[in-house]
Amino acid sequence: MPTKSSASSLPLVGTHFSVDFGTTQVIKEHSFSEIDIPNLEFKTEGENAIIAGQKEFHPDGFEVGDLVLKRGKTSKDSYLFKWLKIQIDFQRKLPIQIVVKLLNHEHSPFLKWTFLNAFPIKFDTSGISSTSKDVMLDSITFKFESFNFEEIGEIGSVKN
What we know:
8% of the residues lie in helices and 47% in strands. It contains one helix and nine strands, in the order βββββαββββ. It is mostly beta strands and 160 residues long. It has one domain (14-38, 56-151): Hcp1-like (Pnp Oxidase, Chain A, Roll), CATH 2.30.110.20. The chain has one helix at residues 79-90; strands at residues 17-21, 34-36, 40-51, 54-64, 67-72, 96-103, 109-125, 137-143, 146-151. Strands 1, 2, 5, 6, 7, 8 and 9 form a seven-stranded antiparallel β-sheet that branches. A two-stranded antiparallel ribbon has the order 3-4.
């Protein structure tokens, strides 16, 4: 008889997530198809002195990438599009909190990224092609003042 896999040994599926805008969900749109979580790259400062055949490197802070949200092209009547348009029309940034949650096998939050004072820096729509059957995607790139990453739940068990 096969044994049930341990819940902690099962990897999470990266297609099961949610996105919230604002501390009280100001923009109620969750239909994103892809999220590029910012990368964290440690910077190093090298010295010219070579010790034991290797160049010496010292930590010198780190760089954080941008948050990118992608979704199928939708109507300009969406709250998200209106929020972006206000910033373009008035040339002002209106920062907002963005919370990305990776959900476990039981549909409960497991990992959470909170991006504080996020604001859009780029809005892009995929190209148009007469031979493509791909869905047109809107891509929004955000900068943010700071972010927090935390594990907030259990992986949970897989439902059969």
